[in-house]
Amino acid sequence: MADTLAELAGQLEKRVKDLRGGRDDAALLAAARDAVDQIERRRGVLDGDTHEALQMVQRMTFNAAADCWPGWSVSDKPIRPDILLAARDLAERSLDLVQELGVGPLRLGTSAWLVGAFDLALGRHLEAIDIFRGARQNYVDASAPGLVLLTDGYVAIARQLAGDQAGGEELDQVCKRIAAGGFEDGDEWIAQLRTALDVFTRQNS
Predict the structure, then answer these.
(1) How far apart are CA 117 and CA 139, in angstroms?
(2) For residues 32 and 22, what is the distance between their CA atoms, to the nearest angstrom?
(3) What does the angle CA 44 – CA 50 – CA 55 come to, to the nearest 5 degrees?
(4) Which of 65, 107, 116, 204 is the most buried (most CB within 10 A)?
């Protein structure tokens, strides 16, 4: 029996971690959802213990949702809308916690990006563009130019999939700017963007 909220969060996080890397996305999402529900039911004022617990819950909900995003790699595994919707809901709850904890624009941008990434996967291209642009502004505020460009790439993907042929950069142009920027993770970002485009183009075909 956990004596503090943070201890309970730690136990719940271990359960979620044990399910990560498996093939049962539904079980992973259910465990993460149960964890955040338990902590929310027991929490009180935002004291040190609660703050520590919410940080763990924010991390585990983000990671569980991110594990279920299909854009990381091309796979024969079918994309299930029910899993996407459940993961998007978890990503949104993670974003709410980031906003409450006030951990800064960098984390806020990444958490918002993940919500937009699920809208992209669900074919909600215009909604994804709006969220990506909000995430982009967070990265601007965080002075993270590489992540600004990465998010520009996701906007370009969403525009392309939506059939928007005007009013914005194409993905190839964004990738050239990333390559020219000399970012440490630049090659990985470009590969990530091209993989996501491939995954969701196949999905739409």
Answers:
(1) 16
(2) 14
(3) 135
(4) 65
